[in-house]
Each structure stands twice: as C-alpha cells, then as structure tokens.
Amino acid sequence: MDVQSIKVACSSCNLRELCLPVGLNEHELDRLDRVISTRKRVKRGTALFSAGDKFTSLYAVRSGFFKTCVTTADGRDQVTGFQMMGEILGLDGIVQDHHACDAIALEDAEVCVMPFDQVEQLSREFTTLQHHVHKIMSREIVRDHSVMLLLGSMRAEERLAAFLLNLVQRLHARGFSQSELILRMTREEIGSYLGMKLETVSRTFSKFVEEGIIEVKQRYVLIKNTDALRHIVSTPQCR
Amino acid sequence: MDVQSIKVACSSCNLRELCLPVGLNEHELDRLDRVISTRKRVKRGTALFSAGDKFTSLYAVRSGFFKTCVTTADGRDQVTGFQMMGEILGLDGIVQDHHACDAIALEDAEVCVMPFDQVEQLSREFTTLQHHVHKIMSREIVRDHSVMLLLGSMRAEERLAAFLLNLVQRLHARGFSQSELILRMTREEIGSYLGMKLETVSRTFSKFVEEGIIEVKQRYVLIKNTDALRHIVSTPQCR
DNA sequence: CGTAGTTTTGAGAGGCGTCAAGGAGCGTGG
DNA sequence: CCACGCTCCTTGACGCCTCTCAAAACTACG
Question: Residue B195 is nearest to which of A95, A135, A151, comparing CB atoms?
Fold first, then answer.
C-alpha cells in the first residue's frame, strides 16, 4: 500500500471537535494520543482498505475525501458513502474481522490510524470514549437508514437535491461555505450512491441549472436557492 | 404502552447462541442475566418504540416479528428492516439519545429489555461482551450497506428474490425450514422495504409462481427452486 | 354474513435506463 | 506551446420497467 506513517496528536488536531476525541478531557485525550500514533497518506484513486482485507484499525479522515463501495461477485457495485475530514472509516470490518467494502481516496488524503483493539481497551477505561464509539456506530446506522429512505422512495430530482444539501451541510459544519462546493466524485459515483445512472445525474443537474436553483461548472457547484432544494426534497412528487 | 414485564434468564434462553449472550462464559452470562431482568410483550400492530421516544434500552426479540421504519415530515416512510427472534432492536437510538425510527410488532411479540447504561457498564468489565456489542452494531452497518446495494442497483425481480433468500436463510438459522415460510408482513411493507409498489411486489410473486420457482398462498410461500432464485439475484439483468 | 383490509390483475402513462454521438477539461509528450 | 489522447460530462432519441389508477376477488374478523 502506497502510504507512509507520520506522527500526530489528537490534542492539537483542529478536527478534535468533530472526530473521535469529542468530549474527552485532557487526561483522556493524552491517552488517546498514544493510541492514535500514526497517520497514513493515501493517494488519489488508491484504496485505504479493500473488501476482504484483514480488519485491524478504524481510520479518521484527517484530510481528503473518500468513497466506500461494496461489490458483488457478479460485478455490480454500489457506493455506500462519501467520507470527509473528521469522519470515521472501517466500522464495517468489525463484525467479520475483515473489511466488507473498499475505501478509496477520491483525492490525496491523510487518515489517522486507530488500532481497534486499543480503542476497545481505552473504551473499557473511559466511559466517555466508550459511549462516543457507540454513538459513532449508531450515527452510521441512522445515516444508512436515511439513505435507504432516499433510495427506496425518492425520485431522481429529490435524490440529487437531498445529496447536495447533505454535502454542503457537512462542509459547512467544517467551516466551508454553505452555498458553494467542489464535488470530489464523478457523476457516475454520485449516480451509484443515489441509485441512478450518470446520464440521469447529469440531466438532473442541468434541470436545476435551467430552473436557476444552482450553477454548475464541472465539479464546482453554486447553490443559488437552498430553499428550492429543500422544497424539492420535502415535497413527494406524486410517487 | 400495552406491554407487561416478566422475569427471564438469558442462561436458560434457547436463543443464547443467536442473541447477546453469544460467546459469554458462565460467570458473564450470570451477570448479564441480572441486567436483562425483564421482558415486554408487544401486541401485533403496536410500537415497541417510536421515533422521538427517549432511548433507554436495547431490545432482543424473543418471539414474534418486527419491522422498523423511518418517516419523514412529509409523510413518506420507508421500512428499514424486519427483525425476528434473536435480533437486536434499538441501536438507532444511541446517537441522539432518542429513537430515530419506529419499531412495530407484525405479530404478538416478546422482547428482552436491556437497559443500555447497564450494557455499557458490563461491556467495560467483559471484553467478550464489549466486542460482541461492537460486532452487533457492525453487522447492522454491513446489512444496511447490502440493502443499499439492493435498492440502488437491482430490479424488481432481483430484489424480491434476494429478499426471500435472506428471509429463509435467517429462518433456517433458527431451526425452521429452508424452503417454506410464512410472511409476517403485507405486500405493501415488503414493497416499502424493497423500494417498490405493492402491485409490483404482487406481480413479481405471480411471475415467480408462473415460472414454477415458488408457490404462494397468501402469506405462505414455498420455495421450489432455490437455485433459480439465487440465479436471479446474481445475474444482473442488463441494467 | 357484511365490511374492511389485503391481494391480484389489467390498462395506460411516464420516468429513467440504454445506446450513441459530440464536447470540454486536463495531463502528457513531442 | 500545441497536439494528442484520455477521462469525464452533456445531450438526444427511443424503449422498457415500474408506477398509477382502477376494479374485482379473496380473506379475516366482528
């Protein structure tokens, strides 16, 4: 794997309000620092881990952008999520001791490596951390359920609107604009995530542009009318 | 809530190989017994918990059958899962301290109540239990991802075939037939779970019957050709 | 035995997939 | 610096799968 290790400290990380250290006190943070002692760089287009790999660690995205995707024997595949800084990767590996999906960097990225046995050990000592780990997993479950809602009951326009709103909302929580964003993924990857073909994604973008809701220039998207997007999401279009 | 409490012991439960106690030794099992001291009965059609309810406990299904579903403000709703005996309900509540979905009994049911703070406390003492809790949550995440694959990239026939295979497989693991089953849910609920309309569910059942793959009499289903179902699932029909 | 809920089946419509062609952006090499 | 090729994106035309609307049959239950 084309990755390299470097020293790092959670206590001085500007993502500590978003990442694993949420709510830990100084002593706990200090102990966590010793567990999360390495980072890995992942080059654009390469895998942090792949389905079938032995599970050893969780990873916190420090910079860059990832997609996770599951693949079936017959070559079908589905993007199950996009992860940005402060978000956790690898939870899928716990149950089988092997990863169940691929995690691929969509741009050069850096992750903090958190050996899972050490996370578990520390969780036994610190209630705060234990509960936080549980929350992270629960959050992923709730998120997945909302994606199931999207895939199961929304039409193309609603899906794309919901997708854009979710992306800017997460970016905004990280200090970025709430109306501008750069898509790190292709139309095809968006389509896979949203259960539609890339042509439909493209057409739907065009439709939003025609209606004056957004501006699009390749990967750059400007949201001109957030309320219109919200309205599209929250108004079942007959179906 | 029309439920009542009764005494119970994991150590004598015939689901202990499927449920939370998996892998615990005698001493640990004994301690767990004291935590899981009550059961609740849930009548058909009523909710074990609803979205917004305060989260206090996880629930292990002891008998009966549940569905979980998320509902949006605009009245859309999506069945996110069906739970049978030995399976755990309530993981969605951890992250917000309130439940994010409804859990509704599809037939008269009985669940074991596991106060979550006590589960966490015991997890800090017993590595085995801690790891098992993590596995349960990870399994749910992996399951959700496979549902996303289903919703995002399969057509009606593939979805229904995958659904039937999954159901009998789980029933078989619980000692039931691997070729016969009684559906506990309506066509509409199946449709909601699979992202299709009830009419399409019904038509797809009829198609399978015509092809001699299954027999259907209302809620009763006999699988006459498991391989044919597997073939349908694993063969992308162009899309 | 009537009524409500569930399921089946048909006919028609439309949203999205499929196939195809062309254009735009970007890195590479001459 | 420009040509070239590659990948990604856009747009059009057409067809099909699934939704929608509707009606009837069946089951369950009071």
Answer: A151
The owner of tokens 């301690």 is B31
B217 strand C contact, CB < 7 Å: no
- Segment A49-59 shows an average pLDDT of 97
Q: In terms of domains, do A40 and A101 share one?
A: yes
Nucleotide nearest to B195 (CA to C1'): D18
What is the pTM assigned to this prediction?
0.95
B141 shares its domain with B164: no
Hits for CB < 7 Å against strand C across B residues 127-186: 183, 186
pLDDT tens per residue, range B164-198: 999 999 999 999 999 999 999 999 999 999 999 99
Looking at the structure of chain B, the number of domains it has is 2
pLDDT given for residue A6 in this prediction: 54
Rounded percentage of chain A residues whose pLDDT exceeds 90: 85
What number is the average pLDDT over the span A156-185? 96
For residues A11 and B204, what is the distance between their CA atoms, to the nearest angstrom? 56
The alpha carbon of residue A157 and the mean position of all alpha carbons in its chain are separated, in whole angstroms, by 22
Confirm if B78 and A239 have CB atoms less than 8 A apart: no
Residues in chain B within 8 Å Cβ distance of A141: 91-92, 95, 137, 140-141, 144
A200 Cβ contacts chain C strand, under 7 Å:
yes
